[in-house]
Batch of 2 targets.
Target 1
Amino acid sequence: MPLTRAEATARAATVEVRSYEVHLDVTASGDTFESRTVVRFGARVGASTFLEFEPSSVGSITLNGASVDPSAADGRRLALAGLAEDNELVVAATMRYSNDGEGLHKYTDPGDGNVYLYQHLFINNGGRVLPCFDQPDLKASWQVSVTAPADWKVATNGALVSQAGGEWRFAPTKPISTYLATVFAGPFHALTDEHDGIPLALYARASLAEQLDQQAGELFTITKQCLDRFHEMFDIRYPFGHYQQAFAPEFNFGAMEYPGLVIFRDEMLYRGAVTDSQRESRANVIAHEMAHMWFGDLVTMAWWDDLWLNESFAEYLGTRVAAEATSFKGTWTTFAMQRKAWGLRADQHPSTHPVAPSEVGDTDQALLNFDGISYAKGAATLKQLVAFVGDEAFLAGLNDHFAAHSYANATLADLLRALTKASGRDLAAWAEVWLRQPQVNTLRLTRSPASVQQSAPASFPTLRPHKIGIGLFDRAPDGTMVRRTSLLVDVDAAETTPVDADLSADLVLLNDGDLTYAKIRLDETSAAAVPTVLPLISDSLARAVLWASTLDAVVDGERAVAELVTLVLTALPVESEVVIIEDVLRATRSLVDRYSTPETRPAALELVAQAADRLIAVSEPGGSRRLAAARGFIGATTDVARLRGWLAGEGVPDGLAVDADLRWLILYRLVVLGAAGTAEIDEEYARDRSATGEQWAARSRAAVPTADAKAAAWQRIVTEVKLSNRLVEMTASGFWHLEQIELTAPYVARYFAEMPDMMRIRSGMSAEKTAGYAYPELAVSAETRRLAAELLGREDLDPILRRVVQDADDDMRRALDARF
Ligand SMILES: [Zn+2]
């Protein structure tokens, strides 16, 4: 049961939390641990309140020295009455470990049997570890101590004060929100460094020690570069003492911004060959989490409706700081290509919401808003805001905002006040259309008469002020496309005539520089020129804008998927930007799967494989393009003999490392094609008994095209509670394949019949992801849509499942409408 906004508001008016003193004893083997907590808080005299508290069993509860009947704890919350002005609550309890990434997650490494724990209380899971007032605006100091096995290490937000045997004591933190308190424990490998007076550390499972040692140089360098850049931009220095970064297994997010101890999913520690764009993405995440130290940790949203104050800013600043301070300069290209597509998709779904909704009713609703809107659209909106007010005013406003609300909470209104003061511009009207209204505008260009038309969907007819670039590209004598000029234009009405109205050029690129957030449609001449001019443009950001606009037109059914495939075949083999290669291959594959008919699909897929194969042939041996092309080829080809050859080390393209990760990718494709089965999966897992190997094995087993294998996988998805979050997700993500669509046909109806029960056995994020991965998105048919409509008609439907089904069904509607 979620915490409602009304409950949180009432509780904040009743209590003022001062500190938590938490002792965790994790020495017992088994499913539980001991938690002893002292909470000190002020209150209105005589008032009642509650704390989140989900114990396995209660030892004792004492309020201000008097014992409280354990029945005050109903398994979910602990009710307290007759509060004093100053209160001390002492609770001893036995708590359950989790295997879904929320609460205190317990993980056993399949390689060496080592056990690791991490604490993730977000979004309202504090009660699974200790009794607490679990809402963002009740900040308090946390003092943690841990009794752990003697050979373990323990890290928390706070600095280590003492360690003797298995007793670990940490210093109290500055005031932080409950969802930001963390613990990481286990026999992990640790490396330390220091920068500008800030102690740095990196942690990972013992079985990843070699990888951590290899990659620590890059990780520490990026960390230091980003710290320096944030210190240049912000008046307040990094406020939480040490900066530790840990890699944790089965983590639900990419990473989480715990003050003083960021946790990353440990897939970000690479164990095989990766592309430069993967390394760029990791640098971006490092910068993103660091941005949160100010936006989110130092100044926190008052309630989850201002989630964007966390995520939009972290996404914007992470992308920006990675580009400005690290060697990964292409983050804005990735943003234009990949992140904005995520934002656009979410923004056009039935569940769309404003970047800054005025009211998010409860924590379940808040969880669903961790989407492309709160991250990517919000960040794109901030990029537009910077174009609108100028960078100096933007940074000055942020610094005012931090100064005014350090170690406290703030809202959209607070931020607008600071930005208005710094820029001297009234931002109320701007904020209303950009932050308070959902959905997206479409910008179209016509050359003669020269004009930019802005439109909005009938359901949300808001037009917005867009400051955009219009790039004029001509073919140079050497054959390349050169930007002659880029006009900066204010588009603020349904029709805008650019000042310099001469738009004669070989290509007119609307939204040159990717300043605004909108759907972009080129004029007819430019659109027709794309296949020939795209490969000739040297600016990767301009190419990303063109590719993104092309893909979006296919999603909308304005262009045929066959046209896209032809473009991919000619333009992709000469593409130099790895992220574009990866994203175009991924998006094209998905569109071919869902937008082509059973008749046209095999030929289209073959062309995608051919495009990837051509790129393999022309790419440099050992480089990122070759690896990206090989992955794309493996995913699309039906050439079983060639794939088997690669596994056996025959005919492998020069410089392509067929390491453990690539072996799994190849084997997985062979399994999907029916050319390998359980025996080969078992054999591969015996070679690679690691966390990643275990996950690939789970995914591959779900992909085996036999009735028994599908039945077993489905059973795991809908009923198995002993399976961890990640293994359930992997199983669900391996289940559906177009190659097996007849075999899995009975599971289309079973999805709609059985998912409501699945939601009851899994919590929060794990339930949401499982429902999403298990959705029969490849069974594109009117019958699937009818079943979806029937389920959506149920009034008792879980709100998380409702949103998953509603949005997935909307994607299917587009695909059905657009089918070629
Ligand atoms: Zn974030």
Note: Residues 209-233 form the longest helix (25 residues).
Target 2
Amino acid sequence: MDYHTYTEQLSQLVALPSVSCADPALDCSNKAVVDLLATWFEPLGFDCRIEPVLGYPNKYNLIAVRGSGDGGVVLSGHTDTVPYNAERWEQDPLALTQKHERLYGLGATDMKGFFPAIWAALQAFDGVSFKEPVIILATADEESSMSGARALSEQQFPKARYAIIGEPTGMRPVNMHKGIMMEAVRVNGQAGHSSNPALGNNAMEAMHTVMTEILSYRADLQARYHNPTFEVQVPTLNLGCIHGGDNPNRICSACELHFDLRMLPGMSIDELRQGLQTRLTPIAEQTQTDIIFSALFPGVPAFEQPANSALIETVKKLTGHNPESVAFATEAPFLQAQGLQTVIMGPGSIDQAHQANEYIALSELAPAVKTLEGVIRAFCV
Ligand SMILES: [Zn+2]
């Protein structure tokens, strides 16, 4: 393991800001990161395509391919990071710093550190012609809209059979996570003087009925769905924020509620939205209000790669670990939608992700590179 090159490469990546955020004041382009990655992988024989993400100006995916065929493996990572508070860091978040056998920097573990690990693993295949392709995918906007992974269906993504997403799992294979939806319900009533309820139609009172109905839907879902592999074994629904009305002596004319729903594998976003809509429609009739139910973002489906699939069997052997579930959502369902058996497995720990003083431990790197070499050997050589 060439730690010097790894550290040099990771410091180049960390130095390029690539925050993705729904707040346009914080959001950055990821172009410099994908351009840099292309300069690393082209000399290793990869054909590099940099594809714009339609509808998201200045956002790009890198698709780099070496070899051809219908099988092969995708090694996938996201190029963006979450926003950061520089004043909470003990060193410059954009200047990779080595201390106590750790490399500190924004995105070091989540997940810029995966790309130099791929580069290191490929050194074992200098001059080897692959029977099936190795494809490197570097996506935009995983931390915000997942627009990069969503765009793959329009980007003529090459054929492959397997995908490793190198999110930090300490190189333990993860084959399951929950999905997430974030939804809004807006109730429009009619304002009026509070002394006479007949003068208006109280949106907050209608929202009270809406909330009761949503909580009863949650209870139904939790009675119907259960998965013992998760720490929280049932789907969850959290009423997150509510805004309505303006004055105690005015009939409330409008009220808006935001909530999230985290579903288990096997639950579909479309069916859940339908289920919610079916419960809200009668309340609108009964209360004579307008109830508008909408998504705050398209949602990330739940993910499950069956434990008996070829990919999971292979990484189980390579790592000595059985597949696990995690609490965070990833791009895995979008790669699976491309027909790929998919597993989440990368160096570093999720405990350091999205934190000040994020780091990756040097001790994790050599085993990660060795496992990636094993994956390439198993599927491409
Ligand atoms: Zn990540």
Note: The first strand starts at residue 47 and ends at 52.
